[in-house]
Structures are given as C-alpha cells and as structure tokens.
Amino acid sequence: MKRLLDGIFFDDAATVGPFAEGSDAYQRGNHGEAMRLYRLAADQGDALAQSNLGSMCMSGQGTPQDYAAAAKWYRLAADQGIAEAQNRLGTLYNDGQGVSQDYAEAVTLFRLAADQGHAKAQFNLARMHSEGLGVPQDNVVAATVYHLAADQGLAEAQYNLGHMYTYGEGVPQDYAEAARLYRLAANQGTAEAQFNLGVIYTKGLGVPQDNVEASKWIGLAAAQGIAAAQHQYGVIFFNAMGVPQDYAEAKKWFGLAADQGNADAQCALGAIYETGLGVPQDYVGAAKWFRLAADQGNADAQHALGAIYETGLGVPQDYVEAAKWYRLAGDQGNYAALRKLATLYETGQGVQLDFTKARELSKKSVAIYFKANRS
After folding, report:
1. What is the DSSP letter of 193?
2. Can you point out the beta strands (E) in the chain?
3. Domain-located, residue 108
4. Range of the domain at 33
5. Is the confidence at residue 375, as pLDDT, over 80?
6. How many C-beta atoms surround the C-beta of residue 167 within 10 A?
7. DSSP string, 11-42
8. For the whole model, what pTM was predicted?
9. Are 211 and 242 in contact (CB under 8 A)?
10. Using 50, 70 and 90 to split pLDDT, how confident is the model at 16?
C-alpha cells in the first residue's frame, strides 16, 4: 500500500530494492542515504522515487535546498502521472521557485492533479480561478472546485468556500452554509475560520445569536494570534458578551492585537488608558495609542486624539493639532468630530473664526448622526 507523508511516498508492498531501502533510510532519519538510494530508483524510472527526490530537494533534506533540482525531479514524476508531483511542480511555477513564474503552466499542472482527486491541487486550482491567475477570474468555477476539496475535508478549502457563501461570491449568499463550512475548518484548528464562526454567532447570521458560542470560537482564534480576533476578544471581555466583564482581561487582548498593529485595538487600548478601566488612568499612554491608530486612519482614534489636544491631557494643549485630527475624522464621517470642529470655528480656536463654516459642519454632523441612527 502506498502512503504519502509530508510529500514523501512510502510503499509498504516494496520490501527489496533501492526504493524500499531508501524508505527505510528515510524513516531512520538518514536522509543522505535515502537520497542516494532514491536516486538509484529514480534513474531506473521509478516515479515515486522521483517525486520523493523532488520533495527532499524542495525541503533541503539530505541535500542543500534546491528548487531547480526539485522542479527537475517533480517534472519527471509529473510526466508519469504522479498527482503529488504535479501539484508541487504547479506550486513552484506559481511561486517562480526553481523555474520561471508561469501561472498558466501552474494551472495546467494543478488541473492534472485535481482531475485525479488531489485535494490540495483542487484547492490550488480553485484559488487560481478565484484570483484570475493563469485563467480568467471566475468565482463560479472557483466555488465548484473548492467544493471538491472541501468535501475531502481540506480545511483551507472549507474556509475559503465559507467565505464565498458569506459574501455570495460565485454562489448564492447563504450564512447557514457559511457557518457549516467555517465550523468544519474551525474544528480542524483553522484560526481564521474560528474567528469568522465567532463573528457569525455574534451577529446571528445563519445561526441563532449566541454570545457564549461566539466568545468560545473567537477566543480560540485569538489564542492562535489572529490580531482581529484578539481585538474582538477584548471587546467581548470589555462588554461582558458571553463572559463576565473583565477590564484587565480586555486590556490584555487589546494589547496583544495592538502590538501587531491592529488599529481598532490600538484605539481601544487608548480608550482604556484614558478612562482608567482595568489600568491606572494614563493620558500620556492614551495619547500614544490613539496616535498609532490615528496614523493608520482610524476615525475614532483621530477624533479621540483631537479631543486630547483640545483639552491638553497627556499632550501640550494645541488647538491647531486638535482641528487637524477632528478634520481627518470628520472627512471619514465621524459626526462627533465634525461637531467639535464646528465649535472650534465658532470660537476661532486653532482655526480662523468662521460662523458660516461652523454652521455647515454642524448641519453635516447632524445629518450623519440621524442617517447612522435611522431605524
């Protein structure tokens, strides 16, 4: 019986000869000897040995990593119909490693392997159709091929197909189906699927709204380092959504996401320092985090940073700087920032006194507010 483990074939029926001896050497960890023996078999036309040599050259086992050599051996095996070699050679063409980048050739190879039922090749072929690489972009075809891989239990395909059902890309929008697929991938440990499943439970899309279930899945994704999940997990603890309220725990998760550059988390961390919830009140710390988020274009942080400059808490009072940040936030539709900017125009602080401009900004602020809160 042929077995495949991390790109290396084993043939339990082969008990003698260079391929069998190479497999024994490989399993003993003697990769140099395995290379020598697999080469003997490969030179005799053994396709599995050729594929194994490609994988060892690709990973640098028993030989220095050499993508060109990997491509050579994979090509020999691929031409004999070995689906694993076809898929891996397709990956080399996709990435331009050891060969000139050629998306069309990658598609050809992925299709050859996919037609043999190779799940990762089906995933790769679907991705090429989804992104329009080497073929015309076509979400319908992508979804069809993702289904093939997802039905074989490939977590990456289940996640991507779930995403397509969430947004109606190539398939009718179906939150229940999205939730089913995310769950399949989440149960295999796919962090992005865990996060998306948690969001679906938070919003009650295709499943009953359930904050406890949401916190479970988002927590699993956060623990794997997904910054957006860490931010949302902080929100969960801050607002007691399916867990007891815990400002210190919220601050911890906001901090982890903020350290990865997540602007929403940086803004939330700034708010925690500003209010002193779960930490000693620290306006300097608040200003630091608000600025990091504001520099990334976060409108709430821009508004908060403007307020800090207007009041002079944690920074020297500076109405010009306050007006700058209020304007940036207002340009993104932040009605509170527009209202405060209007007040600066009414008083001539940081800007030239202009009652007409103040009235315009006030009207715009009110219009945005009512539009956002219209039921």
Report:
1. H
2. 2-5, 8-11
3. yes
4. 1-116
5. no
6. 11
7. ETT--SSHHHHHHHHHHTT-HHHHHHHHHHHH
8. 0.90
9. yes
10. confident
Classify residue 274: in a domain, yes or no: no
Distance CA 156, CA 185 (A): 7
Does 98 fall in a domain?
yes
Token pair 């090749």 is at which residue? 121
Identify any residues that bridge with 159 across adjacent strands, giving them in sequence order: none
**Residue 13 confidence (pLDDT):** 72
Strand, helix or coil at 259?
Answer: helix
Instruction: Give, as one character, the DSSP assignment of residue 281.
Output: -
pLDDT tens string 186-235? 999 999 999 999 999 999 999 999 999 999 999 999 999 999 999 999 99
For position 80, which CATH number holds? 1.25.40.10
Count CB atoms within 10 A of the CB of residue 20: 17
Tens-digit pLDDT profile for residues 140-162: 999 999 999 999 999 999 999 99
Structural domains counted in the chain: 1
List, in sequence order, every residue forming a beta bridge with 3; answer none if it has no partner. 10
Q: Is residue 13 part of a domain?
A: yes
* DSSP string covering 283-298: HHHHHHHHHHHHTTT-
Residue with tokens 């039905």: 151
